């Protein structure tokens, strides 16, 4: 008996050394047995159904070439992870993991306040990076304004968040920590729909001096937000009114001091009490649509950290109290050029470089563009013939921006003669803005997968793919255009709930042979790393 047992153990170790990337299929009853065994290149296919046991992504490490993938069905019944009613835990918790992809999952918060949808937390004690969340749906994370669909509160980098639907959340995404200690670096957020949030659609927090975290980019990095649709409704914000998108500043010296945000190709629609976009730090904003806001469409100013650089060009702005507002000067340079603005006050504040913007009252927009309005799915801001052109623009100053020479549709801008987000006139050849995922185009998203930083050094999308506003624009909870107490900051910088460790003996799905393979894979990971 002892000799036979030893033989099985040796065979298991040999098998562990030869296991290759593999596909697994599991359902609600047995998937937790497979998750801890996943190795680089593996894909776990989840069957349709309701998953009440929460997804704990812990100690999983893929590679840039062979990520670990956990995916629900692309068609048919979805794999639905539901919030614990307690709540005991966040629905999907990510710990000590890298190069992991979550795909085609539905996460239902059930209105359970405190149960975040996806969470990576615990600061520097939890090293998480290069996480991809794509083609997922997040519903009912609106138990309060502090209830978040996707949250990071650990220093992290290389995240790709794309083609997700987040509908009805307290806050859609909250990336970083309120005290600036958990920087979100070199991220790519693209083709997401974030709608009907109580507070922010997305907030990326300001950053203190970069913590010493192994692998975190030290050189200049870019976080890109492109081709998303951001929308709010009129429902109240009891913890204070919030912009649709808030971008915080970067460290003033050391690693991260030269980081930037690039915001382009997005739709921002409706905010009854705050701005559509507020930013400090270093930011480039181009070829977006900004629609329907009582205050400022774009508000740029000192906040937690100073405004340092601001480039705002080729945007179309309609039905705004103020189109572009600089509440603070940008000492490293500004560039407000080639915008098409229909607002009561088109441009306000201290701006050094400001020219060739086409402005008029909102009531006159119909003489410039095809079908102005504020109802997504019915509007068309494509220029009428001969109405939105001017002398060629010199965009040399912003030529380092990703897709600076592509319009909202991803079309080349040619001679740079058009004002606003579209480089063309007559019939719009592209997508009609709607409350939906903005489709990808070959022109706009060539080599999109290469946009994420895969080496920890290149900027995402660079090498690889106070305000002057009308009175009353500073809403409750704001200080000189600030955001007051932000989502997730009450009750001690809320990180959602804890995370329970799956209990019980792993299922042997498929009998002894599969059980042996899973055991071998686990041995391989423990022995060989």
Structural account:
- This protein has 529 residues and is mostly beta strands.
- The chain has a domain at 259-431.
- The protein is 8% helix and 32% strand.
- It is built from four helices and 37 strands.
- The strands form four sheets. The chain has a 20-stranded parallel β-sheet that branches. The protein has a 13-stranded parallel β-sheet with strand order 1-2-5-8-11-15-19-22-25-28-30-32-34, with no helix packed on it. Strands 14-18 form a two-stranded parallel ribbon.
- Helix 2 links the parallel strand 1 (23-26) and strand 2 (43-46).
- Helix 1 packs across helix 4.
- The longest helix has 17 residues, at 2-18.
- The protein is globular.
- The two termini are 31 Å apart.
- Residues 1-17, 446-492, 499-520 and 522-529 have low confidence and may be disordered.
Topology (elements, then pairings):
Layout: H1 2-18, E1 23-26, H2 31-34, E2 43-46, E3 49-51, E4 55-58, E5 68-71, E6 79-82, E7 92-95, E8 98-103, E9 105-108, E10 118-120, E11 129-134, E12 137-141, E13 148-152, E14 156-157, E15 160-162, E16 165-169, E17 171-175, E18 184-185, E19 188-190, E20 193-195, E21 202-204, E22 222-226, E23 229-231, E24 245-247, E25 260-264, E26 267-271, E27 277-279, E28 281-286, E29 289-300, E30 307-313, E31 316-326, E32 334-337, E33 340-349, E34 354-355, E35 358-360, E36 369-371, E37 380-383, H3 490-493, H4 512-528
Parallel strand pairs: 1-2, 2-5, 3-6, 4-7, 5-8, 6-9, 7-10, 8-11, 9-12, 10-13, 11-15, 12-16, 13-17, 14-18, 15-19, 16-20, 17-21, 19-22, 20-23, 21-24, 22-25, 23-26, 24-27, 25-28, 26-29, 27-29, 28-30, 29-31, 30-32, 31-33, 32-34, 33-35
Antiparallel strand pairs: 36-37
Helix pairs in contact: 1-4
């Amino acid at each position: 008996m002892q000799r036979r047992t030893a033989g099985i153990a040796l065979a298991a170790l040999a098998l562990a050394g030869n296991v290759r990337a593999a596909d697994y299929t599991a359902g609600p009853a047995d998937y937790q047995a497979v998750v801890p065994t996943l190795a680089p290149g593996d894909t776990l296919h989840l069957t349709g159904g309701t998953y009440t046991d929460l997804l704990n992504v812990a100690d999983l490490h893929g590679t840039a070439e062979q990520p670990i993938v956990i995916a629900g069905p692309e068609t048919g019944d979805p794999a639905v992870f539901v919030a614990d009613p307690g709540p005991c835990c966040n629905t999907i918790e990510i710990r000590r993991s890298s190069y992991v992809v979550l795909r085609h999952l539905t996460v239902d918060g059930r209105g359970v306040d405190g149960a975040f949808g996806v969470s990576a937390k615990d600061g520097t004690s939890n090293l998480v990076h290069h996480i991809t969340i794509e083609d997922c749906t997040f519903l009912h994370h609106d138990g309060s304004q502090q209830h978040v669909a996707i949250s990071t509160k650990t220093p992290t980098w290389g995240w790709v968040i794309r083609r997700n639907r987040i509908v009805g959340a307290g806050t859609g995404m909250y990336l970083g920590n309120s005290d600036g200690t958990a920087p979100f670096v070199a991220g790519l957020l693209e083709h997401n729909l974030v709608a009907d949030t109580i507070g922010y659609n997305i907030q990326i927090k300001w950053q203190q001096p970069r913590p010493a975290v192994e692998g975190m980019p030290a050189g200049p990095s870019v976080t890109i937000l492109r081709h998303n649709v951001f929308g709010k409704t009129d429902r109240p914000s009891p913890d204070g009114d919030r912009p649709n998108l808030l971008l915080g500043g970067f460290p003033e010296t050391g690693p991260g001091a030269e980081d930037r945000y690039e915001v382009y190709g997005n739709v921002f629609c409706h905010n009854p009490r705050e701005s559509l976009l507020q930013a400090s730090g270093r930011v480039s904003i181009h070829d977006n649509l900004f629609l329907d806001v009582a205050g400022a469409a774009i508000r740029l100013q000192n906040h937690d950290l100073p405004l340092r650089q601001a480039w705002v060009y080729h945007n179309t702005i309609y039905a705004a109290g103020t189109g572009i507002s600089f509440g603070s000067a940008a000492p490293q340079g500004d560039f407000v050029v080639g915008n098409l603005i229909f607002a009561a006050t088109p441009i306000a504040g201290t701006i050094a470089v400001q020219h060739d913007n086409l402005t008029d009252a909102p009531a006159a927009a119909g003489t410039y563009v095809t079908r102005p309005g504020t109802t997504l799915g019915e509007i068309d801001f494509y220029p009428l013939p001969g109405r939105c052109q001017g002398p060629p623009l010199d965009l040399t100053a912003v030529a380092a921006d990703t897709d600076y020479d592509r319009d909202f549709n991803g079309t080349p801008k040619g001679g740079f003669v058009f004002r606003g987000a579209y480089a063309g006139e007559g019939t719009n050849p592209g997508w009609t803005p709607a409350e939906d995922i903005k489709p990808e185009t070959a022109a706009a998203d060539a080599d999109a997968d290469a946009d994420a930083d895969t080496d920890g050094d290149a900027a995402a999308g660079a090498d690889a793919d106070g305000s002057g506003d009308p009175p009353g624009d500073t809403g409750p909870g704001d200080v000189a255009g600030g955001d007051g107490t932000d989502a997730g900051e009450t009750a001690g910088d809320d990180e959602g709930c804890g995370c329970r460790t799956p209990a019980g003996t792993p299922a042997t799905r498929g009998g002894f042979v599969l059980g042996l393979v899973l055991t071998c894979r686990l041995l391989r990971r423990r022995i060989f790393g």
